[in-house]
Amino acid sequence: MPDITIEQLVPRRILILDGAMGTMIQQYDLREEDFRGDRFADIPGQLKGNNDLLCLTRPDVVSEIHRKYLEAGADIIETNTFSSTRVSMADYHVEHLCREINLAAARLARALADEYTLRTPDKPRFVAGSVGPTNKTCSMSPDVNNPACRALTFDELAAAYREQMEALLEGGVDALLIETIFDTLNAKAALYAAEDAMQSVGRRVPLMLSVTIADASGRTLSGQTLEAFLASVQHAPLFSVGLNCSFGAAQLKPFLKTLADNAPYYISAYPNAGLPNSLGQYDQTPEQMAAEVKEYIDEGLVNIIGGCCGTTDAYIARYAALVDGAAPHRPVQKPEHLWLSGLERLEVKPEINFVNVGERCNVAGSRKFLRLIKEKNYEEALSIARRQVEDGALVLDINMDDGLLDTQTEMTTFLNLVASDPDVSRVPIMIDSSKWEVITAGLKCLQGKSIVNSISLKEGEDVFLAHAREVRRLGAAVVVMAFDEKGQADTYERKIEVCERAYRLLVEQAGLNPNDIIFDPNVLAIATGMEEHNNYAVDFIRATGWIRKHLPGAHVSGGVSNLSFSFRGNNYIREAMHAVFLYHAIREGMDIGIVNPATSVLYSDIPADVLERIEDVVLNRRPDAGERLIELADRLKAGQQEGGTDTAQGHHDAWRDGTVEDRLKYALRKGIGDYLEEDLAEAVRKYVHAVAIIEGPLMDGMNEVGELFGAGKMFLPQVVKTARTMKKAVSILQPLIEAEKVEGSRSAGKVLLATVKGDVHDIGKNIVSVVMACNNYEIIDLGVMTPADVIVRRAVEEKVDIVGLSGLITPSLDEMVHVARELQKAGLRIPLLIGGATTSALHTALKIVPVYDGPVIHLKDASQNAPAAARLLNPETRDAYVKEVYDNYRALCERRKKNEVPLVSLQDAQANKLNLFD
To answer: Which residues are catalytic, by number?
Structure first.
């Protein structure tokens, strides 16, 4: 083995991986006898095609292929073991040979690598143990009629992987390469097995992962985005991640860049030799592939480069000149926030001011859900989950703890069904159970990064640490209840004592990432009539602030409905109490909570008299606060029984008496779509044009939502709810808008709109689309999560006049800069319109304008887009308009106290206006 390790070498230079084993084997024109030999004459079925078996029957062929790749300049050769697990070898009836095949393959590769290292010690050669995905998937059903069915279990697959890996390690591989990953749950089983195998053999080697994407969407076959995949596997001590197979180098590049921009690991890539022709053959030449791979190297995207389907030693031989003296990729920093994932990633950070966990898939909390599970009516039970996601739940809590249920079976069945529904499985799952075996069974069903709810110290440190370590190995975050051997922590002092002790154990002994720790300091019922309960909410809120300040990285969650247990039966008072509690707890740092996502009571809408009494209770401001709130609740209830209305109903009815504008704004703010038809019909009679309703009261309502969200008086799921109401309003008005268009009118211009990659919010963009279409602009809407290369390609293909970029979250700002750079690189200079909740004129001036020579115009709301476009596309007004905007940019920058970003490009643009347009 080489004296220097692969970990020591890879930061210094780009390493070359070998090419395809199968392509090389095809050149030998082997027959059935070569695969079978004398030893396997009695094995039933055909053995030809079982390339791994050649390690036993034709080791000379395998060794010669290794030698050819080493001669071509490979630093790393892979063992011929891609399919050498019992799962895959069962197809050939040789599963009993798996250990022997892997051991032989590792020794063959090891001998050749050591031979070449001895020849040139300054160029050590390494062996990567190839671990393929198998021919089965843990996340998808093989039976179209039974979506809960699985071809094999996590434990069965992990056992097969462990057998393979132990043999590879004993054979002397330098690394384990888990490759061609199409189902992340399979990869998680392999990572789990790798830990056991290394422990068993007593050797630790680097873990390399390589994922394959299914199509141009950039998702795996099991539906995950690359960002979600990274969240799912971040628990493992990874050396590298990469992409292989799927496409040729050119088609793979944008996805490789996504990986390189997000993964805090070294990056590998071994694409196919272009795209296959109609006969499944690869026509791309070594020279053509090398030219495409050169872009990876020039742009600093890779640390390890090789080839997959269609590549031979002739392709790999082209790489040495490309990597000579080239700088290797520098991994990005590890994430500073909690990453969760379903099919998509959820990054819990400050701009998502609260992660709402849907609570209705809990048999202990929902009688309807319990009934449906008991009746095996899984389809309707799944619809409850789907509705919560539609209502804005960012995570789904699933609990099957009931004495009359087979809890473990029901949990696995339902989670498998969830995986079959992409509308539900796109969000992360919280596995909620008091039974440890149910939690582990649930974790083994999920390819995403989920949350365990929960573990605690109540059974002592040994059990606590054992559970924590298993949660980490299975790739989940964890809720830690504030319990210990003494019982539940109810006071502020006890809460912080237990949480601090648990944090130290989890970080220092169990090895958990602090970002994966979520404390639940116990939301307990208040206003119960017992004096010792009066300060429970205050203690929780204070403990939240202490945890966020003193336990770095940790998050705070809670079951909010517990707070108002004393007022069950009065939904309005309960929801109002929750709104008040969340308002204060979120300000102190509570960022996750189990709450009904369809809640309709907002902090800002609670009448002053009710708000005062509720805050008196929640903040324990006076000794009789509980009695006063009970009196109010009884009075409201009595009023309702006598034919009156309670405060909730009265408040909801009162808004119906306002002007049509006020009613529409209120409907948007509250997410109420029940009266849109009649209110919009009235508005149409009042306004000259339907589009004026969008630009007027509807836009005013959305702006108010934005202000409330920014002030912490609404949280993101409530904003999503308002967005759905806005979409409904626009759809009602759409036929009128279309009718108002002048038939045969000349197009005002072609506009491409897109929400940038990483962002799934499209309400603002959709409004822009409607407004501009009403002004005779031809709209090309690319939807959400749009990669930069797609925006550039479509802009060129469609010959658009304007590109509009939208984004709601902070990462969208960086992505907009990236899009501008790619537009510049493509030679485009068309106007670029920037809009969305997090965007600003200052950011546009400082970050986007300097990287793009075309006009970059920031617009604060949808109504400004059409007038801006008209001025930009009119040669008589274009120059003056751009000068006006850029003068404003410069004034903004001059007023900025600390201007650390030079505005050279801004000044150059002003000096030579032709650069802005030509």
So the answer is: 759, 761, 812
